[in-house]
Amino acid sequence: MFRHPTAPDEAPRSGGTGSRFHGLKPLWARLLLLLLLGIVGYGLAVSLAPQTRAEPVVVDVTRTDLALYAAVAGRVGSGESYYEAVVAEQRARNYPLRPVVTVRLPTLAWILGSLGEKKAAILLHLLALAAIAALAIRLRAVAGSKPLWAGATFIAAAATALLTVPAMTYWHESWAALLIALSLACRSDKSWAAGVAFGLAAVLVRELALPYLSLMTVLAWRDRSRVEAAAWAAAVLIFFAALGAHAAALASLVTAADPASPGWSSGGGWPFVLAMLQRCSLFALLPLPLTAVAVPLALLGWAALRGPWGERGALLMLGYSAAFMLFGRADNFYWGIMVAPLLPLGLAFAPLALRDLARASIPALA
User: Cα separation of 24 and 47, whole Å?
Assistant: First the structure.
């Protein structure tokens, strides 16, 4: 469904090319519209339910996760070993220390400890600017018209800018999400080395970037780009080597008496996806019922994009959304940051997708 085997690396710069749904068979177009209406309807029903509109439980992250990351970074900046610092801080807060992924990789703590908060914040801003510039260039090649390009770029810039507020300096997800956006924007069929490097940096900050590297590996292999596939696979192997070293460093410090995580298989479904995006992305500017409409439209817009870049972005956004329906507790809402820079820009392409689906559903409209 997603990619025609002869699709060019970018869509032609023409306002008349249409979306991926242009010329779709009527039956498939009608099914997609029904699916869209079903998802929107379900989201609206959930968002308007009395229990949803009641005052939500507030998790004060400034006294939990952010305080933990800041304390660890401060101790690392003072010369203390990361692993001694993070184990001591998590143990003092009764945070789980098992399994190994409950303790973040040391990458961001080392950056914050070395640079300090102010310089690290500047680096985060520079990363965001680089992501915006790279996305603007990529969108110029993907969009069929200048107005569409301008709209998509504006949305991408606004979504990315939200990840540069001061508190985001300490969130591993904000760095990883910006690196993924930069990686995806830099990667093309002819040039992928920078994309691999930024993708590797993302997963070394936060392991939640691993699905992105895995997806890029599989698609490069499918497209018979063996060298590129090997490069993405090597990045995955480097991550697992780093994770192994991370586990070994923790093994001598963590004991059986330390608390373990209760797990993440909560099965929160679509309501959890909407709730997390409404708290930590551009959708936070909307009331929840409008978010219930906007998020499916953004996914539809991504699915409508032609070419390998659109295909990769669409599969990534759909994949993360599906994963969040299965995994993540209420206090893991910040995982939504992983898609925050990219998902909203799909809204720019949603009108084109709806137009082509309507024309395909009712041939008389074509």
Answer: 32
CA distances from 289 to 51, 296, 326, 333 (A): 14, 12, 22, 18
CA 242 from chain centre, in angstroms, equals: 22
Task: Note down pLDDT in tens along the chain; length 366 residues.
Answer: 344 333 445 543 334 457 899 889 999 999 999 999 999 999 999 988 876 443 443 444 445 788 999 999 999 999 999 999 999 999 999 999 999 999 999 999 999 999 999 999 999 999 999 999 999 999 998 988 899 999 999 999 999 999 999 889 999 999 999 999 999 999 998 999 999 999 999 999 999 999 999 999 999 999 999 999 999 999 999 999 999 999 999 999 999 999 999 888 878 899 999 999 999 999 999 999 999 999 999 999 999 998 999 999 999 999 999 999 999 888 888 999 999 999 999 999 999 999 999 999 987 665
Strands (E), 101-216: none
Q: Which of 56, 72, 74 is nearest to 64 (CA)?
A: 72
Q: Report the phi/psi class of residue 105: left, alpha or beta, with left for phi > 0 and alpha for psi in -120 to 50.
A: beta
pTM to 2 decimal places: 0.91
23: left (phi over 0), alpha (psi -120 to 50) or beta: left
Among 5, 343, 366, CA closest to 152: 343
Distance CA 100, CA 133 (A): 36
The two tokens of residue 259 are 């608390």
Distance CA 321, CA 34 (A): 19
| Four-point Cα dihedral 128, 231, 303, 190, nearest 10 | 90
Q: Taking the CA atoms of 5, 39, 213 and 264 in sequence, report the sign of the dihedral they define.
A: negative
